[in-house]
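Entry 12.
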Amino acid sequence: MTAITSPIGAEMLDEPGGPDWLVQTALREIGLANALLGGRAAAAWGLDRLLDQLHPVPDRPLTLLDLGAGCGDIARHLVRRAARRGVRILPVALDRHRVAGRLCRAGGLSSVVADVWDLPVATRSVDLVVASQLLHHFSRPAAGGLVRMFDRIARLGVVVADLRRAWIAQAGIWAASMALGFHGVTRQDGITSVRRGFTPAELDALLGSAGIRCRVTRRPGYRVVAAWRASHAHG
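Predicted 3D structure (tokens):
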């Protein structure tokens, strides 16, 4: 993410060189925050909307690439969510941190350690692409480029879920992280993440700049979600 990260602050996980113990602590705490504060639910809501559009065949598994997967909690949650609909998902978790790769594999996921700008993924090579709380790490022009990339590599559809910027969300993540005993780095990174987040109008404009037309929806926990069929999947 070097040179194209968001101009609003910096987070420890923006770069791959953090101490392994601290990266592991932060990723596990982020996973817990996702479970309690709406991150998993937002991504799952987006997956539901996408599956509603795709009407997948029950006996054909769908491949899913989770970009910026962290500890793999989102990918595992989406597998369980789809299974309730009789849809089998084969997830692959991708993150630039070696520690994340180890955590994902320990959780039973196939895992790839790579930078999002150097994906070992071909055009239309996976059915679904999920980017949860990833885009806010980048400048808006860079994020637009990523959206185009997501749309290109997805055979069927894309889910983007991110943080909705609001002062009350900053206060909420600070209070929640204190109550949960999170490490100070995780707490500060969480506040920075919210400051880097999107309003619905901003995410809509970002998607539009990438040629994507779909509804951006507010979800609980100060989240914004967009889910769309890949451009080449229409027709």
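Annotation: The first strand starts at residue 62 and ends at 67. The chain has one domain: 12-230.
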